[in-house]
Amino acid sequence: MKVPILKIPFDQKDAAEISQELTDLLLEGRLAMGTKVANFERLFGDFVGSQYALGASSGTGALELIFRALREKFDKNPGAVAVPANTFMASCLAPMAAGFKIILIDCDPDYFQMCPEDLAKKITPETRAVLLVHLGGFISPHWAQIKAIAEKNGAVLIEDAAHAHGAEADGHRAGCLGLAGAFSFYPTKVLTTAEGGMVVTSNHDLYQKLLAIRQHGQQKPGSNVHQTFGLNYRPSEIHALLGLNMMAKVDWILEQRRKAAAHYDNLLLNSPIKLVRPPQNHKPSYYKYMALLPSSVNRQTLKQRLKDDFEISLAGEVYSTPAHLQPFWENHQDFLAQKITALPISEMVAARQICLPIYPGLSFEAQKYVAESLAQVLA
Fold it and tell me: Residue 248's closest CA among 77, 17, 67?
């Protein structure tokens, strides 16, 4: 049996419907910021439970929009943003592009997300925001503690929810835990529009700033009057068309991912690998099915054996190289608010983490084959 890394959830029916609507769009000639973008924003905002939703050209762009809006409040003294080291570099690059410096925080050993104890040690009065990254579609069980630490120090909580469309914790959906949240619609994500992103917030003033920054600093789009600094972060009608297709079946997508995760939980019950299981009152989106290998196992050897002997391709880790070990910093020390030190938990997680295939349409037989093959290689 051949098990690929992922399958994007578009079928023949979707392709036919999208093709027809794309034809209509092309003939109509309205390709940017039309009714499809507005409808997608409305549906996604309702889905996560936010008052406002603002489409963007990418997930990174969505995150940068938030920090550019936040920067306006601290124009003369931007300060720093606390970011977990176990994240994709976009989590650092977006606030840096808006003028903030970075404080890198170690992760916890169970959910691989920001460690509240390390945050409490490193946060300073110059910290303007704490960026909570919902890794693999899990919301950290420490999210409320992290938010309290941020607010106690005069900082706001921002969510990097690129992995977490529909993830829930304690009755809240990802994107609605802090001041604002950013989502990505890259092809591998839970919901995809090929490229694209979304900002969600229930803060009216922030939303108004975001609207202007997205459109070259124009408070009234199309007016050619520029009141503030902004660039082009707009999504297209074509990307929104794909997004509307996703929203029509988002419940099914989440159900499929959660069902597959439950199967893995049972199939791997006696495995020597350590599974990441949701705490009570949490419903992950399962962008990734994450686990830790025993320290004695070489991950690269295991992945190669699975591919060569069983035709199973494992998804990319989150992440194999943590942010604080990226070579980028060698020539960009000025972007750091604090000197980089060893972050032992992030480094351990980066060395030992694996992600098993998980996506809508993955059959139970395929999952059983993955579990059995994994057991053989580990043995």
Answer: 17
Give the Cα separation of 252 and 107 in Å (integer): 32
Say if domain 250-378 classifies as CATH 3.90.1150.10. Answer: yes
In this structure, are residues 190 and 285 in contact, taking their beta carbons and an 8 Å threshold? yes
Length, in residues, of the chain: 379
Nearest alpha carbon to residue 169 among 286, 287, 284: 284
Cα 177 from Cα 190, distance rounded (Å): 19
Query: Mean pLDDT score of the chain, rounded to an integer?
Result: 96
Residue that has been written with the tokens 């936040």 in this structure: 70
CATH topology of domain 12-248: Aspartate Aminotransferase; domain 2 (3.40.640)
The answer to whether 358 touches 288, Cβ cutoff 8 Å, is yes
CA atoms within 13 A on the CB side of 361: 10
Whether the predicted pLDDT of 37 surpasses 90: yes
Bridge partner residues of 102 (DSSP):
81, 336
Query: CA-CA distance, 148 to 77, in Å (whole number)?
Result: 23
Residue range 123-179, pLDDT digits in tens? 999 999 999 999 999 999 999 999 999 999 999 999 999 999 999 999 999 999 999
Looking at residue 169, the DSSP 8-state letter turns out to be E
pLDDT at residue 223, as a whole number? 85
Q: Among 358, 332, 339, 291, which residue's Cα sits nearest to residue 7?
A: 358
Domain ranges within the chain, ordered by starting residue: 12-248, 250-378
Q: In what order do the strands lie in the sheet with 353-356?
A: 274-275, 289-292, 353-356
Note the pLDDT tens digit of each residue in 99-112.
999 999 999 999 99
User: Could you tell me the pLDDT band of residue 43, with boundaries at 50, 70 and 90?
Assistant: very high
**Reported pTM:** 0.96
Strand 197-201 versus strand 80-84 pairing type: unpaired
